[in-house]
Specification:
By secondary structure, this protein is of the alpha/beta class. The chain contains eleven helices and eight strands.
Length: about 290
C-alpha cells in the first residue's frame, strides 16, 4: 500500500495483528522490501510482532526524490569525488529517519521496535539518538557509526556501491555476483532463488540514480560516535564475522559506544540476511526484546 510519510509517498507492507507490538524493518542501500526473506518477516510475526516493511525513498515503489544540481549518474559522482569535490546530497539520513517516524504517524503507531541493516542500521542509530521517545528497542545490524569517508576506502568502495542502469539479465547476474562477493558464506542462498529475488526487485523499479542519491546521503552522514554515548534505549548490535563490505570490527565499535548495549557477532554471516540465516537473527532479536520486559 502507498502511504504519505514525512511529505513523500512510501510503499509499505503491514504484516501480523494490528494490536501486537510493532517491529519496523529498515532496508539498506538500494534494496527493497522484497529483499527481506519471507521467513524473516513471518518469523517476527510468529514471535508476536506486527511487522512493517517498506521501500526507502528513491527505490522500489516509493517516491523518487531528486534535487536540482545533485548528480545521480555513477560516472559523474565518481569523477567529482575523485577530484576531491564534496557533493551536497539531495536529502540526508536524518530525513530518512524522519520517513520512519512519519510512517509511524500515518499508521498511528506511537512507539515501535526498530531493526535496520547497513544504511538502515545507520538510520536506526539516528532514530535512537534523535527520536528515542518513539523507539522501544533498536537493533543495529551490519553497519558502522563513523563516516564512510573516514574509513579511507572511498576509492575502493565507490565501484562496489554505485549503481549503473541494468537490464533484467544484468540485474540478476549482478545480484548473484553480490552474494558471492559480500553475502553470507555460512548461510548460502540457492542461485535460482537469488535470481528470482532480483527479477522481482527489477520489476518493481530499477533506478540507478535513486540508489546513488541514497549513497550520497550515506556519504554525507555525520560521525555518530559522540552522540551514541548518550543513547539510553535498549540496543542490540549484530554483525557478521564474514562481512566483506563493512568489517565486523565496525559493528563492535557501535556497541562499545552505546551504554548497556548487547553485541552478537555471527560466524558465517556476511552482508546479506538469507533465508537460512533469518531464523537465527529473529531468535536473537525476539529474545533480546523479551529480556527488556
Amino acid at each position: 500500500m502507498q502511504l504519505t510519510a514525512n511529505g513523500i509517498t512510501l510503499e509499505v507492507e503491514d504484516h501480523g495483528p494490528r494490536d501486537a507490538p510493532t517491529m519496523i524493518l529498515i532496508r539498506g542501500l538500494g534494496t527493497q522490501l522484497v529483499h527481506w526473506p519471507a521467513n524473516f518477516v513471518q518469523g517476527f510475526v510468529n514471535a508476536g510482532f506486527r511487522t512493517i516493511t517498506f521501500d526507502n525513498r528513491d527505490v522500489g515503489l516509493s517516491q523518487r526524490c531528486p534535487a536540482p544540481g545533485v548528480p545521480g549518474d555513477a560516472d559523474e559522482i565518481t569523477a567529482r569525488v575523485m577530484a576531491g569535490e564534496e557533493i551536497a546530497p539531495a536529502y540526508t539520513l536524518d530525513d530518512m529517519a524522519r520517513d520512519v517516524t512519519g510512517l509511524m504517524d500515518t499508521l498511528g503507531i506511537a512507539r515501535a521496535h526498530v531493526f535496520g541493516i547497513s544504511m538502515g542500521g545507520a538510520i536506526a542509530q539516528i532514530l535512537a539518538i534523535d527520536h528515542a521517545d518513539r523507539i522501544l528497542t533498536d537493533t543495529i545490524v551490519m553497519t558502522a557509526c563513523r563516516p564512510l569517508v573516514e574509513r579511507g576506502a572511498v576509492r575502493d568502495l565507490l565501484p562496489r556501491l554505485l549503481m549503473r542502469p541494468e537490464t533484467l539479465d544484468e540485474a540478476q547476474d549482478n545480484w548473484v555476483a553480490g552474494h558471492a562477493s559480500f553475502g553470507s558464506p555460512g548461510f548460502p542462498m540457492a542461485e535460482e532463488d537469488i535470481r528470482a529475488e532480483a527479477r522481482l526487485a527489477w520489476s518493481r523499479g530499477n533506478d540507478a540514480d535513486g540508489v546513488n542519491r541514497q549513497l550520497l546521503a550515506t556519504m554525507a552522514a555525520q560521525d555518530r560516535r559522540p552522540a551514541l554515548k548518550s543513547v539510553t534505549i535498549p540496543c542490540l548490535v549484530i554483525h557478521g564475522v564474514d562481512d566483506t563490505l563493512i568489517p565486523v570490527e565496525l559493528g563492535a565499535e557501535i556497541a562499545a559506544h552505546i551504554p548497556g548495549s548487547e553485541y552478537h557477532a555471527i560466524k558465517g554471516m556476511g552482508h546479506i540476511i538469507t533465508p537460512m540465516l533469518a531464523p537465527q537473527v529473529v531468535s536473537l532479536v525476539a529474545d533480546f526484546i523479551r529480556r527488556q520486559g
